[in-house]
C-alpha cells in the first residue's frame, strides 16, 4: 500500500501520515503531464492546424500545472511530508589559518631587497 494512514491520539485529534513516496510520484506524474502539454503545443505550432484547441490552451495548462506543483512542494515541505536537502549557505565555512614558520633575519644595507622597476613598454 503506497499511502500509509495511521491514526494517533495527538492532543485529542486524529493525525494522518502520508508516505513521502506517494507525493514524489504525484509530482513526477504532474511533471510528465506538463511535458506532454508542452509537446502538444509544439505539435500544433509546427503543423499550423487551426481546427481544434489553440496552442495557448496547452501552454496555459502547462503554466497552471507548474503552479500546482510549486504549491504542492511548498505545502509538503511545510507540513513535513517531505524533507529538503540542507542549504549550502548554512554550512560552516572551513577557515584555513596559515602560520608563518620562517624565522625573520636581521637585514642590513647589503641584504635589503631592492625595489623592482617596471617598464611600461615591455
Distance between the termini: 77 Å
Classification by helices and strands? mainly alpha
Structure annotation, total helices? 2
Number of strands: 2
Spell out the helices and strands N to C.
EEHH
For the biggest β-sheet, the strand order reads: 1-2
Shape: elongated
Largest sheet: 2 strands, antiparallel
Radius of gyration: 32 Å
**Helix percentage:** 40-55%
Task: Quote the average pLDDT.
Answer: 76
Percent range for β-strand residues: under 5%
Unreliable sequence segments: 1-12
What features would you describe in this structure?
With 122 residues, the protein is mainly alpha-helical. The chain has helices at 20-47, 55-79, and strands at residues 9-10, 13-14. A two-stranded antiparallel sheet has the order 1-2. Helix 1 (20-47) runs antiparallel to helix 2. It is elongated, with a radius of gyration of 32 Å. The termini are far apart. The model is unreliable at 1-12 (pLDDT under 50).
Give the SSE layout.
Blueprint: E1 9-10, E2 13-14, H1 20-47, H2 55-79
Antiparallel strand pairs: 1-2
Helix pairs in contact: 1-2
Which properties best describe this structure?
122 residues, mainly alpha, two-stranded antiparallel sheet, 2 helices, 3% strand, disordered N terminus
In short:
The chain is mainly alpha-helical and 122 residues long.
Amino acid at each position: 500500500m503506497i499511502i500509509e494512514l495511521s491514526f494517533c491520539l495527538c492532543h485529542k485529534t486524529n493525525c494522518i501520515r502520508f508516505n513521502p513516496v506517494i507525493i514524489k510520484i504525484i509530482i513526477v506524474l504532474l511533471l510528465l503531464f506538463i511535458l506532454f502539454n508542452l509537446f502538444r503545443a509544439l505539435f500544433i505550432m509546427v503543423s499550423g492546424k487551426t481546427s481544434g484547441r489553440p496552442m495557448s490552451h496547452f501552454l496555459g495548462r502547462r503554466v497552471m500545472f507548474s503552479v500546482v506543483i510549486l504549491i504542492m512542494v511548498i505545502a509538503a515541505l511545510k507540513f513535513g511530508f517531505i524533507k529538503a536537502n540542507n542549504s549550502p549557505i548554512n554550512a560552516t565555512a572551513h577557515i584555513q589559518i596559515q602560520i608563518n614558520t620562517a624565522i625573520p633575519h636581521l637585514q642590513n644595507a647589503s641584504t635589503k631587497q631592492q625595489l623592482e622597476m617596471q617598464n611600461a613598454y615591455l
